[in-house]
UniProtKB/TrEMBL annotation:
This protein's UniProt keywords: DNA-binding, Transcription, Transcription regulation
Highest taxon above the source species: Bacteria
GO molecular function, one term: DNA-binding transcription factor activity
InterPro entries xrefs: AraC-bd (IPR003313), Homeodomain-like_sf (IPR009057), HTH-like (IPR037923), HTH_AraC (IPR018060), RmlC-like_jellyroll (IPR014710), Tscrpt_reg_AraC-type_HTH (IPR020449)
Domain HTH araC/xylS-type: 185-284
Stored Gene3D superfamilies: Homeodomain-like, Jelly Rolls
Family annotation (Pfam families): AraC_binding, HTH_18
Protein name per the record: AraC family transcriptional regulator
Length: 294
């Protein structure tokens, strides 16, 4: 399960699909989870072993981790020490203006190619990252349009900062992934393009020209989740986006648009992943929109 309190709609969600938590100290349980959005995680202080897939990172203050989300991950902390971290969840689409001319650097490349990567920031690099994170927090606290836009611009600066420090690992990475990784990337591309269709393993087998059992096996090995777990999580996330950008749509319309045939199934999975029913989520979005317009 991958629900968190921050999955509830916020002003920044509607304006740019960025969910930012600065210097959080809230307690957590070490539950493996995954999600379909990207994440930037910064460790300020505490004692934490961070598990991502089959890797365990013993964190030190100044460690920054980028995650593309779908790999199972969790933090195992020492509860006798205060655990302080800053986390940004974001949808890749918000970066689209920065990926087009005159901005020609793909700052999402580290997420796309390195997938999950730790950067150990020390000295001036650590100071710069914390300065950007603090500025983002200051602008977020303004709760107005200017603050929201300045926060997003500062976040873009953070991604350029991350990209610059990933150049060496990107260049030293083998040019071509393994055959298994290429196959899984092909599966993911197919699923992302066809998530709203009536998908089954036979369709995937016909598209990839590989056996169903092999496709299921390597997908779980590489991503940590099953093919249909990925599809359902992707559909729920797309539903959340639709509620945020088109709150006038009914729950039934959204469920059908993202590929669910049965409203009960959609409602059950939505609550399991987001923490509230789609009806409650839509109501919260509409109430927030009304409050902002007053």
């Amino acid at each position: 399960m991958w629900k968190t309190p921050s999955m509830l709609p916020t002003a920044s969600d509607r304006k740019g699909m960025i969910d930012y938590t600065f210097r959080s100290t809230s307690p957590i349980d070490p539950v493996l989870h995954s999600h379909s959005y990207y994440e930037v995680y910064y460790f300020h202080e505490g004692k934490c072993n961070y598990l991502i897939g089959d890797k365990i990172f013993v964190l030190e203050p100044g460690d920054l981790i980028i995650m593309y989300g779908m790999t199972l991950h969790c933090a195992k902390i020492d509860k006798s020490v205060e655990y302080v971290r800053s986390i940004v969840h974001f949808e890749p689409d918000i970066l689209r203006p920065f990926l087009e001319p005159p901005f020609t650097i793909n700052v999402l490349q580290p997420f796309q190619e390195l997938k999950n990567h730790r950067i150990q920031l020390r000295g001036k690099d650590k100071e710069e990252a914390e300065r950007i994170l603090f500025f983002m927090h200051e602008q977020q606290q303004r709760q107005d349009r200017i603050g929201d836009n300045r926060m997003r611009l500062a976040f873009a600066d953070l991604l350029y900062f991350v990209y610059e420090r990933c150049l060496q690992p990107l260049q030293s990475r083998p040019e071509l992934p393994s055959e298994k990784e290429r196959t899984v990337q092909g599966i993911i591309s197919f699923l992302e393009q066809n998530y709203a269709e009536d998908l089954n393993l036979e369709h995937l087998q016909g598209h990839m020209h590989l056996s169903r059992s092999y496709l299921a096996k390597i997908f779980k090995e590489v991503t940590g989740v099953t093919i249909f777990d990925f599809v359902y999580r992707w559909r729920i996330n797309q539903a959340r986006i639709l509620f945020l950008i088109q709150p006038q749509l009914s729950v039934t319309d959204v469920g059908f648009q993202v590929g669910f045939k049965h409203l009960a199934h959609f409602s059950r999975l939505f609550k399991q992943h987001i923490g509230v029913t789609p009806e409650q989520y839509r109501k919260q979005v509409r109430q927030s929109e009304t409050a902002e317009s007053e």
